[in-house]
Amino acid sequence: MTLISPRERPGCVNTLPAPCYLCGAPSVVDGLCADCYNEEHPLMKVDPLVRLVVCKRCGAVKVPGGWQTIKSSPEDKVTTREEHVSIVLDREIEALGNDLEVTIVETNKLDRVLHINLVARGKSHDDLAPHTEEYPVEIRFDYGTCDTCGMMSGGYHEAIIQIRADERPVSESEEESIADLATDLTVSEYGRDERAFIIEVDDTKFGLDFYIGSEHLARRIADEVEARYLAERKENYKLIGQEKDGKEKFRITILLRLPRFSRDDFIQVSGNLCQVLDMGRGGLACYDLVTREHFTINPKSSRWQSIQFIAPNSAAKEFMVVANAYDQPIQLMDQESFQVVEVESAVLKSEDIQPGAIVKGIEYEGDIHILPSSTEETNDS
């Protein structure tokens, strides 16, 4: 009996794949075998030599159209270099394959030159299995000065904020709080506003002067200080030159005058002696030492104009409850002068009138006004 192969049978169709037109192996995709297709279609494209310009002061990287700030501290050289490499490779690598994953392997590091291998894994075609490719890259570092650092070193500033207080010096705690606030807002603008910097903080005998690169940042700081301290605000502009296009250029000075009173000080509101408990965006939280009531007042209130400063918190004294009797004035002894005075029982709550208790008060126009205790504030809130 004679055997006939499938190729010799009448009507049999040859189903063998065509050979790869480059190497002759069985083709898989577009007339190419898997190896030749991968070779003709790399997973990515990157130049073997990449140049990187870095600001020598802040570490920002020069990119088309400007400078890109970094998140890491320039003092942390390892993290900073890693971020620099990431920034430049994100710009230089052109992904061509599918499901691409790239690993950076450092092979040699010099002061201004870094040699790396980019290990890419992915698919050059959906019908092919994943494979790995390596791309050696040399990164050369050059150093310059970014626009922001250049302006800072040249003393550039668009705005001045002057912090003053009404008929008193700005307190040390106020200076520290405002300086921290300005720092936090400056950090929040970093990377979004190239002029968001403070070139100098001048601590004068009148208060603080902030020299700020960006008018936008200056207004943010001024808005926050004005709201937090209920400060009086004045602005003026000074012509300092012209732009390249001939447009006039101005510098703004913002004066913020803090009120004469601050937290825990004593003021008069509508004729009544009060103590300031808190101040901020919600207004002035006070305790009326006459009616023994809490209230809030803001600059838009008609009562705001009646506010008068009476005394600082240091004017308060400590008194010891010496004696009390039903429906009789309470006897208090001044802890400094040991003088005994009497106050009406209505100004103290029952939990405060036990003999030996220490209370705080202020003398005003011949009367002793007892300050709100923590118990009163808790019960009245």
Structural account:
The chain is an alpha+beta fold and 381 residues long. It folds into three domains: 17-144, Immunoglobulin-like (Sandwich); 155-258, no CATH class; 266-380, Beta Barrel (OB fold (Dihydrolipoamide Acetyltransferase, E2P)). Helices cover 18% and strands 39% of the residues. Strands 10-11-9-13-12 form a five-stranded mixed beta sheet, with helices on one face. A five-stranded antiparallel beta sheet has the order 17-16-15-14-18. β10 (198-203) and β11 form a beta hairpin. α4 (172-189) crosses α5. The longest helix is centred in the middle third of the chain and has 18 residues, at 172-189. The radius of gyration is 38 Å and the shape is elongated. The N and C termini lie far apart (111 Å). Residues 1-8 and 374-381 have low confidence and may be disordered.
Task: From the structure above, extract its key features.
single chain; 381 residues; alpha+beta; OB fold (Dihydrolipoamide Acetyltransferase, E2P); 5-stranded mixed β-sheet; 23 strands; elongated; disordered N terminus; disordered C terminus
